[in-house]
Amino acid sequence: MNKHLLTMHNITKTFPGNGVKAVDCAELQVGTGEIHSIIGENGAGKSTLMHILAGEIIPDTGNIIISNRNIELSTPSIALKNGIAMLHQHLKLIPELTVLENIILGVEPSTKAGTLNSKDALNKINKLCKEFDIFVDPKKLVKNLTSDKKQITALLSILYHNIKIIILDEPTTFFNEIKADTVHKVIKKLQNMGKSIIIITHKLKEAIEISDSITVMKSGRTIANLNSSETDINHLSSLILDGNSKIKSNKPDIQKGSVLLEFKNITYSQGAVNYLDINFHIKKYETLVVTGIRENGLEILEQILAGNIQKTTGDIIYKNTTTGNKIFSLRKIGAGYIPSDRIKKGTSIKSSITDNIILLKYKFFSKWGIMDSKKINGFVSKLIDEFGIIGSGNQLISTLSGGNIQRVMIAREIDANPELFIFAEPSKGLDILSKQMIYNKINHLKKKGSGILIISSDIDEAIKIADRVLILHNGKEAATLINKNLNRVEIGKIMLGLNK
Amino acid sequence: MDHKINDSTLKATLLAMGSALIITIILLIFSSNNPLQSIVFFFTGPFSNTYNFGNMLNKAGLLIFAGLGMSIAFRSGMFNLGGEGQVYAGATAAVLVSINVNFPNRYIGIISAVIIGIISGALIAGFSGWLKKQWNTDELISSFLLSGIIIHFTDYLISGPFKDNSSFLNSTVKIPTILFIKQFLDTSHFNISFFIAVIFTFLAFIFLFKTSMGYEIRLSGLNRKFAEYGGLPINRHLIIPMLISGGMYGAMGSFASMGSYHMGIKGFTQGFGWNGIAVALIAGNNPAFVIPAALIFAYLDAGTQVAMIHSDLSFEFGNLIKAVIFFLITAKKLNLKKEYLYD
Lengths: 500, 343
Hints:
Helix content of chain A: 25-40%
Number of helices of chain A: 16
CATH architecture of the largest domain in chain A: 3-Layer(aba) Sandwich
CATH superfamily of the largest domain in chain A: P-loop containing nucleotide triphosphate hydrolases
Strand content of chain A: 25-35%
Order of helices and strands of chain B: HHHHHHHHHHHHHH
Distance between the termini of chain B: 24 Å
CATH architecture of chain B: Orthogonal Bundle
Strand order of the largest sheet of chain A: 6-7-8-3-9-10
Shape of chain B: globular
Oligomer: heterodimer
Helix content of chain B: over 70%
CATH topology of chain B: ABC transporter involved in vitamin B12 uptake, BtuC
Shape of chain A: globular
Number of strands of chain B: 0
CATH class of the largest domain in chain A: Alpha Beta
Radius of gyration of chain B: 20 Å
Largest sheet of chain A: 6 strands, mixed
Number of domains of chain A: 2
Strand content of chain B: under 5%
């Protein structure tokens, strides 16, 4: 096999704000007609590396060589011209346009008179459908499609171009076995046509079965490059999960506190696909960490808790009261919540620290609707001191570093002294010092009697702070363990479905 | 806090105003047979006598109301494009009340008429907010279309059932003299409404930056997801800012009819509603800057008026200048709307 179609050499990318290296001296080689899987934990740098290849992120250092030519991929359209395209996990389609219009967007074929030549486009699409044995009605509006047809539309919009390298981000995550099989067939067909395919996946079994070779990533580095025939699931999982075994397991508090929140037989499904199936409760004086692969249920769980989507079946019970079919509302029950989307949801970045920090208390500072600036200023300086925020009250959030923004949110939520505190991905993108500060604050809140629910894809974090760990595999509760002498390999195997 | 205007916004605004002035001068040079004279009239006209000066201040006062209302709406992320209709409705409602109701004394009369005008404007704009809350109807479209209907309906009232048949104007009869808002400064339209506008500016500033509702409105406008996450009553703030914005347009209309014209005249608004948007944008949606913004706008307007009367400039020229200013200011500032549209 020609190993030299694509070489990515010494790629490094540090995101400004938190100083964390998302990709660190990464290496990747893919040959013509090769299926190559990239595996690793959440946050290992897989997506960032592929976004760099797709021209969506510009690396700090490193070379990308295609067919022995050094190229600079500064925009997605340049990547496309070089024959590289990425099929995103969150599909980038325009719902108000038809399938056809979405596919030809940007490369609209025109007639001699300059009008849109949809006939040619239609023929080409129909031909592609036949070739790959897939089907979608090109005249349908994308918003009326089922999720798998949307996926096909996105795939067609890539096949429509003359592509040499196709990047697929978690192509089968949202599919059941049968549909995953269709995707695999398409991938094999692409390979037969001489295309190279790079797959980002969490499914080790899939990686071994479908790909020719596998790159393992960890903390931004590419730590292994293997032939899939020479490896097995156990080997791969040990590579992924190998890490700092010295992380001390939290001494679990097994408490007799009363139950605060209960998720009873909660499921979330769309069509025939089940995204979440979970049962848990949280007591006062304890920390429960729900861990797993972010895309395999954690995201959905957070959305249900935040009241953005509604559970399909089951009961959410808060202090013996069922919430019924209404959307669950955290703020109404006085819960604290820090979302994983800090920038769009957790903060108002164009507002000041003050305006962000008084969010839950502004009414408390007003009399007859007029806010007392003196009291507010006193309150804000107190929190700035207490939580080590670097900045002054009237500074805009957009001028702060990632760790500092995090502190503003923590200060706001913890100061309100919530009985139930929900925290998604607490240490995402933080340095060690900030992480420790956050863990201390969480433990302090717990000792005062709050129930803490943490949604985290970081196993080390789970071991550090949990009293109990609930592990999801494919959206299903695979195990709930008391955090006593747990180690990352044990949890990781359950998470990856390798414990049987 | 964000009530301080930042340097780049200020620079951009000054740049837009400066370019508008230069373009105005160039247009004057090309469209007038005696450009120098026109330019002099244009720039000094508003200060040439108390009549012109008074009218300019009066216009500025009316623009302040509109600019304040729009600033609050923009801050909340709402877009009220129906100003024309709301001004017209406010003016006509105030006139019809004044004509048809016997008030015990002038103060009660004037105050009631103005309040009725404010309420009419508020309800029309508030309806667009309610549509947004109920069915997520784009308030930009609904307020604009609704305004079109209101204008035609008001035209009908003025030139139909309430027309003064003894007048050559397409207008209602005059309101009772006792209900005229007293005018000072010679024969100009200048009256107490200017000072009321200044007081309103102060109140709007307090409302936006010192009250809890102002806080809710500002946060809803800057990041609706965040406001929702924090449990703020975001649905309420689809309606309240529209009520305020429409109410301010209503105030503009009722003060114009009670203080300046003393009757309902068909089509008198002449772009008042649009000018409110321009004033708010020049002021960076900050009440503190609405007064200077309104003064600048009124000055340019008065300049064209005077130049039109004393030199060979056409009426269309005045509108052209305003269009240039509006274009340059909005071109810079409308990024706001884009962000909020595609979020």
